[in-house]
């Protein structure tokens, strides 16, 4: 195996349970490694961070050079997490307004009690079970329910969002052997469209009659210059569901798996619950929900002595940067009290994860509620089956057997 096949090997499903030896190989090969397909793979912390803050690097897939021939097609505008400034900044600022002012308690922080109540309800439903799937029974429904409450979706309509979420997840979590994904893609696009239409209609019902939810805040924005269009409102709300949901499911599930693999640290967190916020940050470094991001240079750039041409695909291996020994001491050790933990679990720079504040609260609440019970739970399979995605990496199922009291 040579270094120019690293991306192919990292994305190979056979390596999904443990890609970290490949990330170590990547860092040893150099900060930047050109791949056989012409892309460039970056695996070191400082280079990744610099690129995430470099205005010459685009997140917009339309930045790729047009093909030399063939029919021209109009490419739809991507969601704002794939846009560049100034349009990215405008839409992100509008989308973040209902969350409250930066660095102050806002709408998401005010939901802590409600998130705790939802967590309790989910755990109560599992009380007498002998086996549970942390993904399907807990980590998956939690963020969907939370986001529905945050947006102001009536409880009787929450099952609709689970159906739409199922279709959206299925559309991106495709098995390599699936030659034809046309039907999955169609169902995912239909779910996205139906969800957007539903949310716009629901927001319109609250025009002039605001309640304490994000849709009301969007539609009743007093400043005309700060209002989202219907299309932007739909895209932003759908993005919140997708980004907040995918990140949180993987963060909670990876967290449970990591704690069960480290019983000493699990016992410590049981005895010292105040350590939990720090432990969640360490989970974001050690087993992050997001492993890679693609970027496209808007000009020829030099990265650590390697010249990367304009328009080339640059893959930033965030999870590799999180294990870089030049940035983190003993990086392959799970340390819930790790100091100076400036991880890349939510990315960095202007595209820092939109749903990060919500994901942190959900993970702290969920794991805090689970930890007292994990001593009676054992893994049915280790490693568990993983989802297909190498970018959003996490178990597809995490089956646990529960020892019931005699």
Structure overview:
With 406 residues, the protein is α+β, with helices and mostly antiparallel strands. It has a single domain, classed as Cytochrome p450, CATH 1.10.630.10. It contains 15 helices and 10 strands. It has a 5-stranded mixed sheet, with helices on both faces. α7 runs antiparallel to α11 and α11 runs parallel beside α15. The longest helix has 32 residues. The chain is globular, with a radius of gyration of 21 Å. The termini are far apart. About 2% of the residues have low confidence.
Concise description?
With 406 residues, this protein is of the alpha+beta class. The chain is built from 15 helices and 10 strands.
Spell out the blueprint of helices and strands.
Blueprint: H1 6-11, H2 20-29, E1 32-34, E2 40-42, H3 45-52, E3 57-58, H4 87-96, H5 112-124, E4 131-133, H6 134-139, H7 141-151, H8 158-172, H9 182-205, H10 214-219, H11 230-261, H12 263-271, H13 276-286, E5 292-297, E6 301-303, E7 306-308, E8 314-317, H14 318-321, H15 356-374, E9 377-379, E10 399-402
Parallel strand pairs: 2-8
Antiparallel strand pairs: 1-2, 3-5, 4-10, 5-8, 6-7, 9-10
Helix pairs in contact: 5-7, 5-15, 7-8, 7-11, 8-9, 9-11, 11-15, 13-15
Q: What is the alpha-carbon Rg in Å?
A: 21 Å
Instruction: Give the overall pLDDT as a whole number.
Output: 88
Number of separate strands: 10
* H-E string: HHEEHEHHEHHHHHHHHEEEEHHEE
What strand order characterises the main sheet?
A: 1-2-8-5-3
Key phrases:
406 residues, alpha+beta, five-stranded mixed β-sheet, 15 helices
């Amino acid at each position: 195996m040579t270094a120019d096949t690293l991306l192919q090997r990292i994305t190979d499903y056979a390596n999904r349970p443990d890609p970290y030896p490949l990330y170590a190989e990547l860092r040893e090969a150099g900060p930047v490694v050109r791949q056989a397909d012409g892309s460039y793979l970056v695996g070191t912390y400082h280079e990744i961070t610099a690129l995430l803050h470099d205005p010459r690097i685009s997140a917009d897939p339309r930045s790729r050079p047009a093909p030399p021939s063939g029919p021209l097609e109009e490419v739809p505008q991507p969601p704002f997490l794939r846009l560049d400034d100034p349009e990215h900044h405008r839409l992100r600022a509008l989308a973040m307004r209902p969350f409250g002012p930066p660095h102050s308690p806002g709408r998401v922080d005010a939901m802590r009690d409600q998130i705790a109540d939802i967590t309790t309800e989910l755990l109560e439903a599992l009380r007498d079970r002998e086996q549970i799937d942390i993904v399907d029974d807990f980590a998956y429904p939690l963020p969907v329910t939370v986001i529905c409450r945050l947006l102001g979706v009536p409880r009787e309509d929450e099952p609709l969002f689970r159906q739409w979420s199922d279709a959206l997840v299925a559309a991106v979590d495709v098995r390599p052997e699936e030659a034809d994904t046309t039907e999955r893609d169609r169902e995912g696009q239909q779910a996205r469209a139906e969800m957007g239409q539903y949310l716009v209609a629901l927001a319109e019902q609250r025009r002039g009659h605001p309640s304490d939810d994000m849709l009301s805040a969007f539609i009743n924005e007093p400043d005309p210059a700060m209002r989202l269009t219907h299309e932007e409102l739909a895209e932003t709300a759908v993005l919140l569901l997708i980004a907040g949901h995918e990140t949180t499911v993987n963060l909670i599930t990876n967290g449970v798996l990591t704690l069960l693999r480290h019983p000493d640290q699990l016992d410590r967190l049981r005895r010292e619950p105040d350590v939990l916020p720090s432990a969640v940050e360490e989970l974001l470094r050690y087993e992050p929900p997001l492993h890679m991001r693609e970027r496209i240079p808007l000009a020829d750039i030099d990265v650590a002595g390697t010249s990367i041409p304009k328009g080339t695909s640059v893959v930033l291996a965030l999870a590799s940067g999180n294990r870089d020994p030049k940035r983190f001491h003993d990086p392959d050790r799970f340390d819930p009290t790790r100091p100076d933990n400036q991880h890349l679990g939510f990315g960095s720079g202007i595209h820092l994860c939109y749903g990060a504040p919500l994901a942190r609260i959900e993970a702290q609440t969920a794991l805090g509620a689970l930890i007292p019970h994990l001593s009676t739970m054992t893994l049915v399979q280790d490693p568990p089956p993983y989802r297909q995605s190498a970018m959003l990496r996490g178990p597809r199922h995490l089956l646990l057997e529960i020892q019931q009291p005699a």
